[in-house]
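Entry 14. Structure prediction run on the chain below.
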Amino acid sequence: MAEESMNVLLTTRREAAEQRNPIALLDLAAYMRTSGHTVDCYYLDQLKNGSRNKKSYDLVGLSVLQVTREITPLRDALFLRKKLGSHVVVGGKWVKTITEEQKMVFVNQGIEVYADAGESYFGKGEVDYEAYPSWDRIDFETLKGVRGDIMTTRGCPHHCHFCHNTEKKLAFFNARRTADNVELLLNVGAQQISFCDDIFTLRPAHMESLYHELRERHISIERRNEFFTHINHINEETVKWIKKYEPFQVNVGIESGDDRMLKLMGKGFDSDTAYNKLKMLHEEARVPIGTLFLIGFPGETEESLQNTLSFIDKIRAFAGNWVSYYQPVRGTVGYEMATLRNQGTIPGGRNMLITYVDPNLSRKILFKYNYRMMNYSSEDRLRTQLLYWLIDVLPCRLLERIRSLRQRKRLKQYMQGYPTPTNA
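Output returned:
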């Protein structure tokens, strides 16, 4: 635990496929400075290529969100200690999901592991989120880039069985702080604002206070903001404020069109409710809707996949969709279900890759339905039938490789079209 003022470096890996603002670093850096610490933020690749101030640090904090190879965080921590000669502390969401044995691997190498919130490492008592400090421009200057991502809350009240959100306690940042951050992002080059809260529409009063704060400052984000809502939080009051924000897209995690699978996933609604709420959102708010689906969760069958495909067909007149593969994450109900059903289960990584195959299914079935769901709106039927035939005859590993490259290209185009990187 740190009580005296220190020189601290905060770092994390830069996600190449889906670049986002390192919100955890930006938050913690601002918080630490109010306690008298001196803080720098850099991506790990910047440290490896030498693009940082040649400072010495009392402590280096490595934030790990998720990994595709479990050895990577240890290698990164050892690199930091060797490169900077400082005490290294590893934290972040991933640390909260690892076993005691995994933690001891770090400890035996002289690396500290801290699973609680970063604020508690550098401060005392409960965090006052109402008084949480705003981000600092200097961090975007050292990170050499900006995206439009921001959070107005922490935590989620729902307990979906696949979700690796480790923050179950809800906390709301005040409207002034969020407006400060929105203004900063726009000033340093972001073209659009993406509210990354698990559910931005949790409290209409929270949406209202931020809306008025932005209006009072003449900060316009209409038609250049997006956020997530939840089926159970689509109602007359939230729809009213969704309309006022005029988002370029509202995202909704549906996950499945099959009622049995929705129950297994712990979603808290059925497919009829999902359809009716999406239809209500479309008809009353008249905003673009993006839906997210997750296939291959433990217990999935070809019948449930077909039901999801039919659901996507039913909503495609007013909602787009993105389909991911289920990834087992330690510390979730889904992971326990997966390990019971498949003894070879390993923790997953990127959701564009197949890492878990339920005994009811095969890799080829998962791939085929993912492709059909993602291409349901195709009007070139001859081309579509040809591609379905190729899927039946080509090796699955080759198909997955081709599909992954295509999805990465599509995701890159999407990311390029939304917040513009800048050198601040």
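The mean pLDDT is 89.
Filed with the rest of this week's runs.
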